[in-house]
Amino acid sequence: MSTSHGRTRDLALTATFAGFIAVLGLVPAFSPFGFPVPITVQSLGIMLAGAVLGARRGASSVVLFLILVALGLPLLSGGRGGLGVFAGPSVGYLLGFPVAAFVIGALVFRRGAPYQTGYGLVAIVLGGIVVLYAIGVPATAWRADISLPAAMAGSSLFLVGDLAKAVIATLVAGAVHRGYPDLLPPRHAAARRERESAAA
Fold first, then answer.
1. 83: how many CB neighbours lie within 10 A of its CB?
2. Residue 108 in this model has a pLDDT that exceeds 80
3. How far apart are CA 106 and CA 90, in angstroms?
4. Cα dihedral value 168, 171, 173, 176, nearest 10
5. Which of 5, 6, 99, 137 registers the highest number of CB atoms within 10 A of its CB?
6. pTM over 0.85
């Protein structure tokens, strides 16, 4: 694959997934028991971006999506957009989205092909739930002016839904990688890069 063709493909995949995350914003959000951070399905798109595209392209697609939101496009659930959303209680989750996609992608692509469902689920849970909550919960406590335990208790309302989204993302990513096996690096190539990185 030529360098120019590879870059064109990367740009196309990045733009496609940014659009996919935006489309998921059409599904209405809701705030359980008045908690200041709404529950949406857009985190499913974040999980898939990392698991399908890898660390760099996955995070880039999320960053592109967030740039469009910051420019005022109403792409978040509920038709929200503009810089104001980055000053609200959801800011930690929004800024954690590209980090979560990067972590998921790094873990999945480090393992390489063939895609393994069990490992994929662990990677998605670690990046899409553990890492995302670690960034989002403290920021919610700060911006909503509530205690950290209260923010943790409120965020626990997301957990069952996020676990369900992680399972869905794992299965969809597996189907994509079976259909497009060249998206993942071969297992031996991934292992070789890991050894070279450790020796550097």
1. 10
2. yes
3. 25
4. -130
5. 137
6. yes
